[in-house]
Amino acid sequence: MKKSSSRRYSQRKQELIKKRGAKNWSFREEQFCMGIAEELRSGELGKNLSDEELVEMLALLLMSCKNSIVRVQDKRKKTYYEKPHQFTDKYSMISEIIHKKEFLESWIYHYKKYKEKSMRLEYRPILWRINSNNGYLLENIEAQAYGENTAQRMIERRSQPCIALVVSKVDSTAILIESPSATNAVARINEVVELCLTRSNLQGKLLLLICFYS
Q1: Which of 35, 153, 154, 189 is the most buried (most CB within 10 A)?
Q2: Is 18 helix (H, G, I), strand (E, B) or coil?
């Protein structure tokens, strides 16, 4: 009886590995995602996905959570190493993330597009740090397609350092922000004064960015 059970587990595990595209995907991880899928199934966000798609979408998110924890511990990942991470466990991380409605909406959007594009890597949803100077904190992560993330990082690497001067219209107080790129400056401005700027609002390479807020 034990041999039969072990054989079924082995076959099931191999199926999961092949389906998820992850070398170390386990039966435990699958069961965990199935449990969360059950929680989401009755909600608004989960109603347009099949049971199989819900589990697959969550599996991708769980793997991204796992990868984010590994990155900040890997000395070879210079842009991630020793950056603060709010979690030490992928299971607790995903359990918190799924309750961020805007994030989950975005993740599902990118997941659907990923499926529509025949699961091409450039469309795979991943975790993106809004401010690359900070680590993986709930308020600093968004869902983004792998291709967009790669392009964004290339822009930041090629960008020149930017100084942002943010001035209050009310009392003329000013905040000076030094950033490695205009993109990073925009993220930090939004973080400090919530202006909701985007890099697309700006033109060309910027050395100095001046913003006024009420």
Answers
A1: 189
A2: helix
